Amino acid sequence: MPTIKYYLREGLLPAGVLTSPNQAHYDDEHLRRLRLVRALVDVGGLSIAAVREVLAAIDTRDDSLHNKLGAVQEAISQPGSGELDPLAVKDVQAFFERQGERDCVDVTESNVTHMLAAALSAARSVGHDHFHDLLDPYLEGLKIIARADVEYIARRGSSDDVIEGMVVGTLIGDAVIKAVRRLAHAQVSRDVIGNGSDD
Amino acid sequence: MPTIKYYLREGLLPAGVLTSPNQAHYDDEHLRRLRLVRALVDVGGLSIAAVREVLAAIDTRDDSLHNKLGAVQEAISQPGSGELDPLAVKDVQAFFERQGERDCVDVTESNVTHMLAAALSAARSVGHDHFHDLLDPYLEGLKIIARADVEYIARRGSSDDVIEGMVVGTLIGDAVIKAVRRLAHAQVSRDVIGNGSDD
């Protein structure tokens, strides 16, 4: 497979053990790392340079799996480039304060909080000034989803497999959630707005 | 504003009442329609032709608001162009059967079910054959979210404003949910995987 040779050349996969001049042996560890690199490139759309950074974060010995997951999550969560509305930034900070976390001084320090502030800025730019009212019910629903996500990946054996599961689960999960949310809209709209009346 | 003139010329806004040779009066109805067209173009990224189709669906007299919302939702939910895995299609059909809905014979009939089958196909293509196990907990969490979404838009007065709210709420909501899900991951991962151990 040419991609494996490419990943080897780029230093993203450790070299196998040579069993003959033109054959190398790769063990399970290699396969796990290959799956992870593929997930980062094919599903995450990361550049080779970004993959190298992610792998360096993962291979740091003196860090917990929780912190490694956080570092990878940042790498796969790129915020848009739009201007942030200062009021939307305040919305995010107020949300964090309601969660009992008071350390969100600069929302652009994390890609994830930056992404949230960017989305609320987009809402405000089209006159939806109270979109932040949805944050608390969103978090309530997303805790159920996040628990299922974390259980899905925690079953996996190795640290590389847990992280690969998080990359795939986070990014493909975004698309699945988009679709299932629309199905849930249809169900709830039938109950709340009803099928028979107009305006 | 040049965009208003453009929308008028394209027939997306009804003409105002002329109050002098070069001034027209626009009422609240016009403003609501303008907000809706802007949401479809600026937030939804729809082409002018697609906006025209959406408006035609909305202006159909003999249809319920619920059905109109469904038509607009389809217009703003474009599935990707990837191949569908027949096993992923079966996953979607089994999910519908579990919901007691047996009429999902062809998933490509609706953009939303097509989007779901495409996402599960992507998961299978990277070896995640059990991603569909997440559908039930996802729906559970998304029902809470969808209820908040529908309440958010149902407060609005006119049919155009409800639909505008659904377009903005659905699309900007997708981005907000992406970010809040990652925050929930961090919270849950701290509880389940813990902060101190490696592998």
From TrEMBL, chains A, B:
Annotated HTH merR-type domain residues: 1-57
A Pfam family in this protein?
A: MerR_1
Q: Which residues form a coiled coil?
A: none
Return the protein name: MerR family transcriptional regulator
Which species? Lentzea flava
